[in-house]
Design a protein that fits this description.
The structure is a homodimer. Chain A is an alpha/beta fold. The first copy, chain A, has one domain: 4-Layer Sandwich (Nitrilase/N-carbamoyl-D-aminoacid amidohydrolase). Chain A has seven helices and 16 strands. Chain A has helices at about 30-40, 60-70, 75-90, 130, 160-170, 185-200, 250-255, and strands spanning about 15-20, 45-50, 90-100, 105-110, 120, 140-145, 150, 175-180, 200-205, 210, 220, 225-230, 235, 245-250, 260, 265. In chain A, the strands form four sheets. Chain A has a six-stranded mixed beta sheet. The first copy, chain A, has a six-stranded mixed beta sheet with strand order 6-7-8-9-12-13, covered by helices on one side. In chain A, helix 1 (about 30-40) packs parallel to helix 3 (about 75-90). The first copy, chain A, is globular and about 55 Å long. In chain A, about 55% of the residues are buried. The interface between A and B is large, with 72 and 72 residues.
């Protein structure tokens, strides 16, 4: 953990919020203004925002994406968002394009008052994202926000149970999941499974609105942002259309009780010695049999 | 694969069925008769039946379970079920207690006409099952039933994404999931996620009815058997109460197309080099950070 503030005080409660909106493609200044206005109406110590919230999604080419990208060494959007975190006393989990040397990532930044930024670089790129971005090259990791241990993943990572599982095994209480979902409902249902199977809170902040690529392919983002408890039950659930913020109070201890029954523990019951196949490359050896 | 019959002919269609019923606790002969009658009404080349379908669930102690257990070397229930498979020309995936030397497993047998039985031994025991059974000690594996590659898992294994993932990576087209579920709805939703994330058919055969342990703890089994397509959509869905059989035609090729988009493949997009945490023991090192 980089943060020592109350980390490990699992009994402490923390307000966690979502902000669902429609970023404007290519207009960082407008998006930062929308984010600042949205946060002013959310009373929370951590707010999760959509994927690529500063840039919009349907970036036409890598050059455009690079021009909108933030830098860990300092860049206009990142500086503004960190200042917002400081002035509001609110941590932010926000999607943005991130440039590091020659590499360009679809990333999420975790920005905390008084702390250095932490970044997650999306491991599983969706569709055309692979034409713009480099895939993430570091394992999923967990960072403290006060008493809450937060793991970041982005949008299409929902399909891969390995991401949420790695985060839970690294100690996550909450999965913060900035998204730009276009397949209605699928991710929301799967995130309930992620919450249940790992015993974690799961906060999916999706965007709304429409965008188009230069070739005319249109994307309609499906909203439906949600914050689920460790049994997969919704604490917050937004509609498919609205721009909206909201927050609820979470008790990290709820995510640290991994017992489903007195004899069952979601993580300790795993049988890793029999899971060697999980590190295979997806080219099954079909000669094996029981 | 032990079966060579049409294995790999992914275009071939196969009828797969479910049989949901209420086994009678401790009465193997009655349960075998119910199974024979149920199968007579199901037109299928593979039928999935509940967990512990020959014995019932709330076995009071290990001695009782041992007395009802089948043996790979030959035992009354296994012999009768294999004969049923032969006479009907139908493969069966059926839950039963299985004794091997000093070990007793909560197992599923895959019984195919003209083939040797294949067994799966439940890896993740639920609640009191740990008092009766030894946990399975072999990795999940896949067996051919005609053109269909079948992976077995049992009931509470649904909570652990590793099981279905190992089966998919081993080439499963269908997950056959004999169950005695008591938590209403949770497993059904999670199995939709298992189908979607792995691109496989998923056949959960649950039981109905009630049983009680000697100390009075009552169990109500929640039915809701379902057969899902590789996008998690129900092809069969039974109610919480009824005894019922049914079957649908599956095309294995649908489960071998792992492309969600032209640029995304459910298995090949995985990043196993970054998933080393998956083989950890569930005791996270909370000193790590991004």
């Amino acid at each position: 953990m980089t943060s020592t503030a109350r980390a490990g005080d699992a009994g402490a409660a923390l307000r966690v919020g979502l902000f669902q909106f429609a970023p404007r493609l290519g207009d960082r200044a407008a998006n930062l203004a929308t984010i600042a206005a949205g946060l002013a109406a959310i009373d929370a110590e951590l707010v999760v925002l959509p994927e690529l919230a500063t840039s919009g999604y349907a970036l036409p080419d890598r050059e455009t994406a690079l021009a909108l990208a933030e830098s860990p060494a300092g860049s206009p959007g990142l500086t503004a968002l960190q200042a917002l975190a400081e002035s509001r006393g609110t941590a932010l989990a926000v999607g943005l394009p991130l440039r590091e040397g020659e590499r360009l990532y679809n990333a999420a930044a975790l920005l905390r008052p008084g702390e250095a930024p932490v970044f997650y670089r999306k491991l599983h790129l969706f569709d055309r994202e692979a034409l713009l971005f480099d895939p993430g090259d570091r394992p999923p990791a967990v960072t403290a926000v006060g008493a809450l241990r937060v793991g970041l993943m982005i949008c299409f990572d929902w399909v891969f149970p390995e991401v949420a599982r790695c985060l839970a095994l690294a100690g996550a209480d909450l999965i913060a999941h900035p998204s730009n979902l276009v397949l209605p409902g699928l991710a929301q249902g799967a995130m309930a499974t992620r919450a249940i199977e790992n015993g974690v809170f799961a906060a999916t902040a999706n965007r709304v609105g429409e965008e188009a690529f230069p070739d005319g392919e249109r994307l309609r983002f499906t909203g439906g942002s949600q914050l689920l408890d460790p049994r997969g039950r919704p604490l917050l659930a937004f509609s498919a259309e609205e721009s909206r913020g909201g927050a609820v109070t979470l008790v990290p201890a709820e995510a640290r009780n991994k017992r489903l029954t007195p004899r069952n523990h979601l993580l300790a019951d795993r049988r890793p010695a029999l899971y060697a196949g999980l590190l295979g490359d997806g080219t099954p050896d079909r000669a094996g049999d029981a």
